[in-house]
Structures are given as structure tokens and as C-alpha cells.
Amino acid sequence: MLNYTSENSLNKQDCSYFEFINIIQDLIKHPTVKQMRNYNQHAQVSCYQHCMQVAYYTYFICKKLNLDYISATRGAMLHDLFLYDWHNHEKVDNKWTSKHAFLHPKIALKNAKEIFDLNAIEQDVIVNHMWPVTIKMPTYKETVVVTFADKYSACRETFGHFQKLLHTKRVYKYAYVFLSLVIFRII
């Protein structure tokens, strides 16, 4: 499994690691893609880390299913190339980031097309990865894989963050105080 800290934390003894990195090498070296490191995606995970995680899952699943794992992996790496902080609910390109779930696939596709030549699967992966939220059905099986890899990754990132929070003394202290108040019927 991919460690969130960097792509270098993958098992380098694994031949598939080299193939995976080879597939996205030109993408991850591009300065615009590197900018995704500056934006928080879920909890304490950057947009770049999230896309790496989704691309990693996509690579293995599509390869096992004999799908176009190269196009799917590349599309997964670019699926959230929107380059803004969606948490602050400001306008980006005259659109509110509060509608981020609906708008960011089109913004990511526009950004990706400006710097890379994308095939039909890569484009479909980027623009339809938020299905069923964005309503339009994915055209390719590879997009369905990315959609589920994206949801799985987002859940892991978010729940992992909450799990870490529960193990801090501060949370235990507040939980203890709250339970004490409930037990003694003060609340």
C-alpha cells in the first residue's frame, strides 16, 4: 500500500513500483502537477498525495482486470488537478468553491488538457471521476475503477485523520469531561 508521505515510500523492490512510476513519470515531474502539493485535499493529505494514492490503486486494479491500466493510471494522477483550496468557499474562475464536488472535474480536465495530450480514457477519468455526484455516467470501465478508487482513498484519508485525533490526550480529555457530565446528568 502507498504511504502518504511520498511516492518514494513504495516498495522499491517490487517491479510493479517501477512500472507504476514509469507510467506517471512525466506527469509527476511537471511543475503544474507538483503544485498540487500546496493544496489540502482530505484531512492532512495533499491533493498530490491523494492523486498518487488513487493512481496506485487504479494501476493495480486495472492491471488485474486486463483494462487499459496505463491510461487509467495517468488519468487518476490528474483527476484532481484543480489547483485551488476548495475548503475556503471562495470564487475560482467566477465559480464558488462550495460547488467544488460538481465543478472541479471540469476544471481539472481543462488544466490537464492545457499541458498534456490526453486520450479519450484519460479525459473520461478526469471529467467523470465524481460519478454519481456529477450525474453523467462514465464511458469506460477504467473510469469506474478510478471512481471507486477515489472514494475508497478519500474515506481512508478522512477516517485515518479522525482515528489519529481520537488518540490525542486532548480529545480524551474532552470525551472524559463530556461523559462525566452525561453520567452525572448535568447535560
What's a concise summary of this model?
With 187 residues, the chain is mainly alpha-helical.
Largest sheet report: 2 strands, antiparallel
What is the mean predicted local confidence, pLDDT? 77
Strand order of the largest sheet: 1-2
Distance between the first and last residues' Cα: 44 Å
Q: In the CATH scheme, what's the topology name?
A: Hypothetical protein af1432
Number of domains: 1
Number of extended strands = 4
Walk me through this protein's architecture.
The chain has 187 residues and is mainly α. It has one domain: Hypothetical protein af1432, CATH 1.10.3210. It has eight helices and four strands. Strands 1-2 form a two-stranded antiparallel sheet. A two-stranded antiparallel sheet has the order 3-4. Helix 1 packs across helix 4 and helix 6 packs across helix 7. The longest helix is centred in the C-terminal third of the chain and has 26 residues. The N and C termini lie far apart (44 Å).
